[in-house]
């Protein structure tokens, strides 16, 4: 499985971005696709995940209402819509894939993309 996230950039506080994760490879290896972020302090945080077959999503409690994950089955993409961005959302955002539909922690994700940098200015 190969993953490539893009769509990051510099945005002002209160703005929005949409990140895209392009996925290639076996369908069995992307049963769950997750988004994570690594802050400038090198802290990795879970953002959310989506089950590929059902579209069921789960978002980190702290991000609910601002961040939304969706999938595009036709284009084999997973999207991360980020609204109301804040300086503390500044991070490198990664998408990752698991062959488990019950993936719930970072260690469940085997394949990772290189990430895309999001910078939110105050």
Can you describe what's shown?
Helices cover 0% and strands 52% of the residues. The chain contains no helices and eleven strands. It has strands at 2-6, 9-12, 17-24, 32-38, 44-51, 57-59, 67-72, 77-82, 91-98, 111-112, 116-121. It is globular and about 40 Å long.
Task: Based on the model shown, name its key terms.
single chain; 122 residues; mainly beta; seven-stranded mixed β-sheet; four-stranded antiparallel β-sheet; 0% helix
SSE topology sketch:
Layout: E1 2-6, E2 9-12, E3 17-24, E4 32-38, E5 44-51, E6 57-59, E7 67-72, E8 77-82, E9 91-98, E10 111-112, E11 116-121
Parallel strand pairs: 2-11
Antiparallel strand pairs: 1-3, 3-8, 4-5, 4-9, 5-6, 7-8, 9-10, 9-11
Summarize the structure.
With 122 residues, the protein is mainly β. The protein is built from no helices and eleven strands.
The main sheet comes to:
7 strands, mixed
Put simply, the count of helices is 0
Unreliable parts: none
Mean pLDDT: 94
Q: Tell me the overall shape.
A: globular
Q: Which percent range fits the helix content?
A: under 10%
Annotation, overall tally of beta strands: 11
Q: Report, as a whole number of angstroms, the end-to-end distance.
A: 37 Å
Question: Which structural class do the helices and strands define?
Answer: mainly beta
Instruction: Evaluate the radius of gyration.
Output: 13 Å
Q: Which series of helices and strands comes N to C?
A: EEEEEEEEEEE
């Amino acid at each position: 499985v190969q993953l490539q996230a893009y769509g990051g950039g510099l945005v002002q506080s209160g703005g929005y971005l949409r990140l895209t994760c392009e996925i290639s490879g076996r369908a069995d290896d992307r049963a769950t696709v997750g988004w994570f972020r690594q802050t400038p302090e090198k802290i990795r945080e879970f953002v959310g995940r989506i089950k590929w077959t059902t579209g069921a999503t789960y978002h980190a409690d702290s991000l609910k209402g601002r961040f939304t994950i969706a999938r595009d089955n036709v284009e084999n993409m997973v999207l991360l819509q980020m609204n109301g961005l804040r300086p503390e959302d500044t991070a490198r955002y990664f998408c990752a894939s698991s062959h488990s539909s019950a993936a719930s922690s970072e260690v469940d994700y085997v394949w990772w993309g290189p990430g895309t940098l999001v910078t939110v200015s105050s």
